[in-house]
Amino acid sequence: MTGIFFGSTTGTTESVAARIAERLGVAQADVHNVAAASVEDVKKYDLLLLGSSTWGSGELQDDWPGFLDKLGKEDLSGRRVALFGCGDAGIYSDTFCDAMAEIRDGLASTGCTFVGGFDAEEYPGCGSRLGRGRQRVGRREPHADGVVDRRHRLKPNAMSAGDFSRYDNMKMLLHHIYEFRKGVRDLVLCTLCPTCAGLLIERLRSQGIDYLLQPVTEQKVNLYFGKRSCLDAVQTFVDKPLNKLTPEEDFMLGIMLGYDISMQCERYCKRKFHLSGLIA
Ligand SMILES: Cc1cc2nc3c(=O)[nH]c(=O)nc-3n(C[C@H](O)[C@H](O)[C@H](O)COP(=O)(O)O)c2cc1C
Known about the structure:
Strand 11 and strand 12 form a beta hairpin. The protein has helices at 12-24, 39-42, 64-71, 98-106, 146-153, 161-181, 194-206, 228-235, 247-256, 261-279, and strands at residues 2-7, 31-33, 47-55, 59-60, 80-86, 113-114, 118-119, 135-136, 139-140, 187-192, 210-215, 221-226. Strands 1, 2, 3, 4, 5, 6 and 9 form a seven-stranded mixed sheet that branches. Strands 10-12-11 form a three-stranded antiparallel sheet, with helices on both faces. Helix 6 (161-181) runs parallel beside helix 7 (194-206) and helix 9 (247-256) packs antiparallel against helix 10 (261-279). It is built from ten helices and twelve strands. By secondary structure, it is of the alpha/beta class. It binds flavin mononucleotide (FMN). Flavin mononucleotide is lined by residues 8-13, 53-58, 61, 86-88, 92, 95-98, 144-145, 171, 174-175, 178.
C-alpha cells in the first residue's frame, strides 16, 4: 500500500503530491500533509512517497523537521521510500532540492530502502547535497512552480532581460505570500506588471488568500492581499491613486502594511500641516 506524505508552504509540493496520487491511483485518504500527520499514519504503508520543498538555504520545508525527527527513530525496515521535491534550480542551484537530502539523511538509521532516482545530467549546473555520483536518489520537480517551470526549460542565456526581471519579481512576491502566511504582516501591497499580477493571483486563489487589484497604468497594477478586514478598509480608497490619498487614508494604509508607527505619525502630521497650509 502506498502513502504520500508532503510538506508545502505555498502549495506547490501539495499540488505535485496530488498529481502523483492521481497518476498512481493513490486515494486522497492516503495523501498526508506532514503538518497534520502522525508517525502512526506512516506505519500502514509499505511504500512511502515523501515530498518536501526546500527553503532558507537548503533547508526542509517548515512542517517537516518535527515529523522527520520522530520518523527517523522508527524501524522502517522492509519499507520502501521514494522522494520527491520542489525547488528552484535557477536561483538556488547550490542547494537545489536539498530538503530531499535532509529526508534521506534523517531516515538513514531506520532500515528503509530508498527506491527510484534520476539522472543528474538532467540538471546541469546544479550542485546539491542530493548528489551521489551521477545517479541521484529521488525525483525532483522543478516544473511545479509556474515561474520555475518557465525558467528551467530555457537554455542558459535564453532569458530576455524582461523575463529575468519578471522572474526575480516573482521570487520576491512568493516570499511576501510566505511572510503573510507566517503572520509577519496583515496586508501586503505589490506594484507589478499585469503578467506577474496574473501569476500571483493564481497563487493567492489557490491558497484562499483575499486580494484587491488596482490598475495604475497599462504596464502597472497595485495588488493588495492579506486579511479581509484590511482589504475592506483599503476598498474604501482604492478608487484613486496612492498619491491622492488623504493624510488619514495614507496613515491607515501605512499602519496596515506594518510600517513603523512613529514614522507614520510624523508623516501624517507633515501631510496634514502641508494640506492645511495650502488651504489657509
Ligand atoms: C525564501 C526562499 C528560499 C528558497 N530556498 C530554496 C533553496 O535553498 N533550494 C531550492 O531548491 N529552492 C528554494 N526555494 C524555492 C522553493 O522551494 C520553491 O518555490 C518551491 O516550489 C516551494 O514549494 P512549496 O510551495 O510546496 O513550499 C526557495 C524559495 C524562497 C521563496
